[in-house]
Structure formats: C-alpha cells, structure tokens
Specification:
It is found in: Nucleus, Nucleolus. It comes from Durio zibethinus. Helix content is about 65%, strand content about 0%. By secondary structure, the protein is an all-alpha fold. Helix 2 runs parallel beside helix 4, helix 8 packs across helix 10 and helix 16 runs parallel beside helix 18.
C-alpha cells in the first residue's frame, strides 16, 4: 500500500482517523460514498496538485529540458499524474470545490504539453478525457486541444486523442443531431484543414473522413470539405483526399455486406422472382437429358437476372447508393479545377492516375461535359502503358449519353487501332474488345456496321478470352441494334427493329409508368395467355405445341446468400454463358426460325388490327371459330395481313374511339384516375411477371438505364476477364503442389508388389503352369539358341585379311 503523500497526521487526527494508512484509490472510493466527510483531504490533495502544477509551468517558462528540470524526477511526475486522475474521478462529487480544476488542467496541458514527459502527458490527457465524458467540460472547448495533441509525435497519445474526438462526436449525435453544435465543431476542423501546416491538416482530414465513413457527419458540408482537400498545397493531403474518394465505395460495400449478414433480412423484404410454372415443368420433365439440362440452365439464368434486376430497382428506389462526390455543390467547377491541376502537376504517375480516376468518376456520376479530357486520355492509350486497364476503366467511366459522339470518336478509334488487330497479343485484343463493349453500352452511336462486323469475326479465335469478348459484343448489339450485325449473328432478338436513341433524345413519360398493365391484367394472369405459350414453345427444344395445363407461379426466394452474390458486371458473364446455347440453336435451324419469327410477329399485329376491325364490322357468326383456329395455328397469310392493314388504316376514328375506351376503362378501374396503394402494388406484381416472361423469352441481357450506368463503377479486373496472366516460379510451384495433395507417397513397383495381398498376377501364374515335355524341350532349345546368339554378337567382325 502506498501512503498518502503529503498528508500529515494532524488533519487525520482532527477527523478522527489518526495513523490510518490510506492510498489514493481507497480514499477515492470512500470520498464517493461520503463526500462531505472528506473535504479536508480533498483540499490537501488539491493544494498539492496546484503546487506541482506551478513547478511544471515554471519549468516550461524557463525552457528547462526534461532531463535537467523538475520532470527528471519520476516520482514527482507520477505524483502529479496520480493526483490529476484522482481529482478527475471525484470532481462530479465536489462541483463547487473543484470548479476551476477542469479549466486549469486544460490550460496546463495546452501550455506545456510539448515539454512534459510522455507518461505524465498521457495521464493528464486521460484525466481530461474523463472530465469530457462526464460532461463537465464541453467538447467544443477541448476539440482544438485534442487536435493539437495528435500532432506531437506521441503514438499512444495520438491514438487516445483521435479515438476520444471520434467517440465523443458520435455519442453527441447518437439520439438526435444538434446542428448548431455540429456546425461549430465542423468549423473548427474545416479551419484546421485549410491551414498550410501539413500535420494539423492531415489530422483534421483523417478525423473528417472517419466521421463521414461512420455516417456521423453524413452531410453536404463534410463531403464538400473532403473534396476541396484535393486542392491542398501539400501533396500528402491531396493524396489522402483522393484515396478516400476512390476507396469510399469499397468501404461502403464492405459495411453493407457486414450489416446484411446481421439484420438485413429483418428490415428489408427479399426480392421475389416470378417464373412460369409450365417452363419449370418442361425443364424437368420434357425432352432428352441434354435438352433438359439446357432448359434448366436457362431457367437458372432467368432467375438470377430477375433477382438482380429487382435488387437494383429496390436499391434505386431506396437511394441506398452514396458517394461523397454525389454532394458536390459545383461539380463542373470541381472537375475543371482538378483537371487543370492534373495537366500542370509534377507528381508521380500513381498520383496522376488517382486524379484521373476521380475526374472520370465525377464526370460519369454527374454526366458532365469535359471535352478536353478525352484527348488527354488519348495520349496514354497504348498497350504497353503502365496501368493501362485502370486508364481504360477511367475512359469508360467518363463516357455517357450526354457527351457528343464526335468528342469520343478519336479515342474510340485509337482503342480499336491500338488493341484490336491481328498482330496484337491475345490479352490486348481481349481487353480492347471488352472496353469497346463497355463504351458502346453507354454510347452505341459510336459503332459502325463495317467495324462491328470485323470485330465479330474474332468470335472464331482459339483464345477463350478473345472469343468470349467478341461474343459479348455481338450479344450486346443483338439487343441494341441488330441491323448492324450479319444475319447469322443476329440470332432471335427481342426487338428486330431496335435502334439506339439519337444524341439528345429523351423519353418523356406522359402518364403513370406501366399503368397499361392494369388493363391487360387478365391476359398476364390468365391460363390461356398466348404470349406465355409462345415463350414456352420457343424455349422448349421439342418443338411441340403447348399443353393447356393451368399456369401457376413459381416463386424462388432470395434466401441463400450464395445465389444472391452477383458481380457488378454480371451482365457480361451472362452474355458469355448465353453464347454457346445461342450458337448451337443457330446452327440447327437458321432460316426456318427467321420465317417462323416473322410469321409470329405478323400474327401478333393481326390480333391488334382484328380488334379494331371487329369493333367496326360487328359480330358475325363463325368469326369466333375462325379466330380460334387462327390462334391455334399461330400463322396467317400475307394477303390477309395486308387486307386487314388497309382496313385498319381507313378507320382512324375507330382507333381513336378504341383508345379512349381503353383509357376510360383503366381510369374507371382506378377510381376516376386516382391510383391507390393497392393499384401500385398490383402494377409492381404484374411488372415482375412480365419481366419474368421476357427473361425466359430473350437470349441476351437487359440493357441497363443511363442512371444505373452512371452509378455503376467499372472494375478494371472485369476488362481482363478470362485472360490468363503469366505466372512466376512461386505461383507455378504452388499449382504443382496443389495438384499433388491427394497423391500417396511415391513407391517403387517392387515395393508395391511386395505389399500386394490380392493373389498372384497373370505372369506369375504362367510361370507356375504345368508344361508338356515337348514344350519343355522346345523351350530349352530356344534358350540355348538365344544364348549362342548373344555370345556371337559380342565378338567384333574384323573381315578377311588382304595379305598372307
């Protein structure tokens, strides 16, 4: 037990406790239980603390070193630190007696922090943290002091001060956010961030980034302050801000994944996938084993694509995506200023690449127009350039539909000319084709017919990476613009007349989206739906007619986490998987499918015109039977189609009346044009069913919208899909050892034979077999002949002598 230093027996005897040995922890516990009975001891310890405090302040004023001054004595420093912690613990019980103690402690630490020993400085800081945690001192008063303590070079003190600042601000905003206090604290950190002192600005940036990452200060002011740190005079501050902006999405995804494993299932609904029950039955019970395997794989692809689409739609509706670049007040000015810094800076190449990535990410996210950026990228587009995949990913990210195609055309042509040619390496060709596909996904107007047909020829390459990239490009244009492809590469597109939108073209909705689904509700849900029958007949390999069984709904919950994990670039993977099935179907029936397809399109159009002409002609006996026969046959003659087309063209008024009747029917069902929550829920269900049928019918993939593409981050690793990189010696050796794990230890063949317990081999049995006498004599004679031959062959033939 340590005696209470400086406490004489006189005051102890006055209080009735003479010659009692007390330590500071025991005295502290007793003072908490009986504060009024220990006021004398409190005054003594407080006076001792003030005297020791004056000694250290005089030392700091006289500039004594820690070796020759008062701080050289470790006992004095320990006594001061113990009394500081003691008084900090008992301050809540003596608010009047120790009213000046917190301010004196903060002033002492502020004045002489640099000259104090590290141990004493750490314990005094702990005492001050204790006072702040008990709300005796406001965080606003101590925030500059703790930010200053982080710049002293003491690692333990820096960790203590940083964690205290972050946790105190988090605790302050836990229940509700006080904007006035937060704004005052933010102003302190923003002022430190704008200073020229690199150490203070760095600690301020780290604190702001941590609070923003933890979603404590998740506002526009903090995001803009971090973004403006990219223009700091210190390169370290600039690199820190750039790296935070680039890595924020990765941190965000990790946090979402960890949160999803804990409680995502409780808060959010799992996306439902609606698949036709008839297609499920055919995939499991009809056809050969090979055809059922193909149909099962196609069904799984449809389920995965539907889950992905529903998950993306739910994420876009809840606005869960976030990046600090989203809240830039002047995104165009930020990009232009950062691009001018990129052009004039003398930093190393890695820093320039970080600036380039931030510029491209901001341009793609806000759909900005920075025309000088693409010629700047064009200088670095070479296959031998360092970090070329990151550079190409940045080029793809900066492309969007608001940029004029003429501005990107030189960059696009250089990528084609530098990467995709016969003398280029297969890795470069694969990367080039993948980059071309990603750019055309955002700007399809850049592609020409001759260029696309030339690039499509790489599908016959023996390299898997090149052929897969070429097939993915073909699958993209099957959906975007099938007319640019050769007829054998078109397959069976969903819309044969699809065209990319012209530059500046915008689709303006004039009504509630997908409200027409309420009108065709019976057709989508009904058992005799012809469109679902056509989709099922196209999917089946048998080619038989559809049965009239009832169509149920097959729901697949998104329960397991493994099924839900789909890469950000899952469309490309689905393209590669779909190509093999598409080509096999094309080789079997090419022309016949085109004929059937055109006839089916004509049949669908005839149904629409028959409704109009039927309303004008009136009901006739026998028309129902003819229509039933036509619906079963699903083929109509071209002459009937032309006649009905002419009849429909001549009845414009009937078309208008029919459209008005349909709209009035929809509005009447939706209570005079006012849609309720039930209607919107029904629209969502019908939309899911329609997308399920479309996913089963189409072979390619759904083109994402421009908003989804702007949010989507291009992964450079996906541009190198299926590319086999050259392995070094350690990696090759690891592969060899991995292949030998299941092998047993090597043994000679004789050792294996000796351990054999399954009987004799056939050769051993032949040696023991009984032989007749004639066979034995023949074998002995044969062995003698062979022995004589071996002996004669050993002598060298010298030839005849030429002289005697």
């Amino acid at each position: 037990m340590v005696l209470l230093a400086g406490v004489t027996p006189a005051p102890l005897s006055a209080s009735g406790r003479s010659s009692e040995k007390l330590s500071l922890p025991s005295l502290q516990s007793k003072m908490k239980t009986d504060p009024e009975g220990y006021e004398t001891e409190l005054h003594l310890i407080h006076s001792q603390f003030n005297s020791a405090l004056e000694l250290f302040q005089q030392q700091a004023a006289l500039n004594f070193s820690s070796i020759t001054g008062v701080g050289a004595d470790p006992t004095v420093a320990k006594d001061l630190s113990d009394r500081a912690m003691f008084l900090a613990h008992v301050t809540p019980f003596y608010p009047k007696q120790l009213a000046e103690f917190p301010s004196d402690l903060a002033a002492f630490l502020k004045v002489s922090a640099r000259t104090l020993p590290s141990g004493l400085r750490f314990h005094v800081s702990q005492a001050l943290v204790l006072l702040v945690n008990r709300k005796i001192i406001d965080v606003k008063d101590t925030l500059p002091l703790f930010m200053e303590l982080q710049t002293l070079g003491d690692r333990n003190l820096r960790k203590l001060a940083f964690s205290h600042v972050v946790h105190s601000i988090r605790r302050m905003n836990k229940n509700h956010k006080n904007e006035a206090k937060n704004r005052a604290l933010q102003n302190i950190l923003f002022a430190l961030l704008q200073q020229e002192d690199e150490a203070r600005a760095k600690r301020s940036l780290i604190t702001l980034c941590e609070l923003h990452r933890r979603k404590v200060w998740f506002d526009d002011r903090t995001a803009n302050a971090i973004c403006m740190a990219c223009f700091h005079s210190s390169s370290r501050i600039m690199i820190g801000a750039l790296s935070f902006l680039l890595d924020f999405e990765k941190i965000e995804n990790d946090d979402e994944d960890s949160d999803a494993s804990s409680g995502e299932d409780e808060t959010t609904q799992t996306p439902q996938v609606v698949i036709n029950k008839e297609a499920v039955y055919k995939a499991h019970h009809k056809g050969t084993a090979a055809s059922k395997k193909k149909k099962k794989a196609k069904l799984q692809r449809a389920i995965r694509s539907m889950k992905r689409q529903q998950r993306m739609s739910s994420e876009s509706s809840t606005s869960s995506y976030y990046s600090p670049l989203n809240h830039l007040k002047d995104a165009q000015g930020f990009v232009e200023k950062l691009f001018s810094c990129l052009q004039t800076c003398n930093e190393r190449f890695e820093v320039k690449m970080m600036m380039l990535k931030v510029i491209s990410r901001t341009v793609g996210l806000h759909r900005l127009i920075l025309l000088n950026f693409y010629p700047f990228l064009q200088r670095y587009v070479q296959p031998h350039q360092k970090d070329i995949t990151n550079l190409l990913a940045a080029a793809v990210q900066a492309c969007h539909d608001m940029v004029p195609p003429d501005a990107i055309e030189p960059l696009f042509k250089q990528i084609v000319n530098q990467f995709v040619h016969d003398r280029s390496r297969p890795e470069a060709i694969a990367v080039g084709l993948n980059v071309i596909r990603e750019i055309c996904l955002r700007m399809p107007l850049l592609m020409t017919e001759d260029l696309l047909q030339d690039l499509a020829l790489y599908k016959k390459s023996h390299e898997k990476a090149v052929s897969a990239a070429a097939r993915s490009l073909i699958a993209l244009f099957r959906e975007v613009c099938p007319s640019l492809l050769v007829k054998k590469d078109r397959g069976r597109p969903v819309d044969p007349k699809a065209r990319p939108r012209a530059y500046g073209e915008v689709n303006v909705p004039s009504n509630v989206p997908d409200i027409e689904l309420l009108e065709h509700e019976d057709e989508i849900d009904g058992s005799g739906d012809e469109s679902s029958g056509e989709a099922a007949s196209n999917n089946s390999v048998d080619g038989k007619e559809n049965s009239d069984d009832e169509e149920g709904q097959y729901t697949a919950d998104d329960g397991s986490e493994d099924e839900d994990i789909v890469d950000d670039d899952d469309e490309n993977d689905s393209i590669d998987k779909d190509e093999s099935d598409i080509d096999e179907e094309e080789e079997e029936d090419n022309d016949d499918e085109d004929k059937v397809e055109t006839e089916e399109v004509e049949a669908e159009e005839n149904d629409d015109y028959e409704e109009v002409s039927g309303s004008r002609r009136g009901d006739r006996p026998g028309d129902g039977e003819n229509e039933d026969k036509k619906s079963k046959a699903r083929k109509r003659k071209l002459s009937d189609f032309e006649g009905q087309l002419i009849a429909a063209d001549t009845s414009l008024r009937a078309l208008k009346r029919l459209a008005e009747a349909k709209m009035s029917h929809v509005l009447s069902d939706s209570t005079d044009g006012i849609l309720s929550d039930e209607h919107f829920r029904r629209i969502k269900e019908l939309k899911a069913k329609r997308e399920a049928k479309t996913a089963l019918a189409q072979q390619g993939f759904k083109i994402p919208s421009s908003d989804q593409l702007s949010f989507k981050r291009v992964d450079p690793a996906k541009l190198e899909a299926h590319v086999r990189l050259k392995l070094n010696k350690e990696e090759r050796l690891a592969l060899v050892k991995a292949g030998r794990e299941d092998r047993v230890q090597y043994q000679a063949r004789t050792a294996v034979k000796q351990k054999k317990t399954g009987g004799l081999s056939n050769r051993q049995k032949e040696h023991k077999k009984y032989m007749p006498l004639a066979a034995k004599k023949a074998k002995a004679q044969r062995s003698r002949q062979e022995k004589s031959k071996r002996q004669r062959s050993g002598k060298q033939f010298r030839g005849k002598k030429a002289w005697k």
